Amino acid sequence: MALAATGLAGCASEDAKEAKLMSRANISKADAEKTALTKVPNGTMKSAEIEEEKGKLIWSFDLTTPDTKDITEVNVDALTGEVVSVEKESAASEAKEKD
Hints:
This protein is α+β, with helices and mostly antiparallel strands. It has one domain: Nuclear Transport Factor 2, Chain: A, CATH 3.10.450.40. The protein contains 3 helices and 4 strands. The protein has a 4-stranded antiparallel sheet.
């Protein structure tokens, strides 16, 4: 039972952290997602999160495309809406990143 409670507390603190970051963003998740999708024609959203990376507040999107198993990560500045980076990652390296 203690393990389950710990897991829930971890989720709650992650949610609070995300909510705090979202409160600082000038660009909504929906608008940032539209921007990210313009960089990956025929892309499908796999995951999305807001995070601080290298001192920048960014929306980070992982997108898949029908012709490959690779993931394209698109980072959009949460303050300006500008694309910060677009990187292709193999499915294998993406799986390692999640571990």
